[in-house]
Design brief:
This protein has five helices and six strands. The chain is α+β, with helices and mostly antiparallel strands and about 140 residues long. Mean pLDDT is about 90; it is low at about 135-143.
């Protein structure tokens, strides 16, 4: 299972280090409003898919709360069919869907889970609700 913070599932973007720090900065700047994951990872971890309205705790390398985001959309699609509007919403600077696919294929290969055109991708859209740990303490951010 993924870690929980204040009752919220943790959202740990990318891999620890510079990549996670950069992705978290993009979320906090409002530039990153989507993230992609592999459906197979959910099964391996015994996790259900996110659902619209769910609030997630965006975390840093130490699993400390960086922000709270709320899921605004969720879709499972083949890697070859991830749409450009979703890829663009990831906010990582890709200039085309081909560039997005190449970068994500390379990333998943580096972390030991290579993808094919038929790999099932979980496309999660979200919006930033609050930055820092303040929102968790209010008790009104439960799922």
């Amino acid at each position: 299972m993924w870690p929980r913070i204040g009752g919220l599932r943790a959202l740990a973007l990318g891999t620890p280090g510079d990549l996670r720090a950069r992705l978290n900065t993009l979320v906090l700047a409002g530039l990153k409003t989507a993230t992609a994951g592999l459906l197979s990872e959910y099964a391996e971890e015994g996790e259900e898919l996110e659902h619209v309205g769910e609030r997630l705790a965006l975390v840093d390398d130490a699993d400390a709360l960086v922000a709270v985001v709320q899921v605004t959309g969720i879709e499972v699609t083949r890697f070859a069919e991830v749409p450009w509007d979703f890829a663009h919403a990831e906010g990582e600077g890709d200039r085309s869907i081909e560039e997005w696919r190449a970068g994500h294929a390379a990333y998943w290969t580096r972390v030991g889970t290579p993808v094919t055109d038929d790999s099932e991708i979980v496309c999660v859209r979200f919006r930033l609700l609050s930055a820092g740990a303040g929102g968790i303490a209010t008790g009104d951010l439960g799922t």
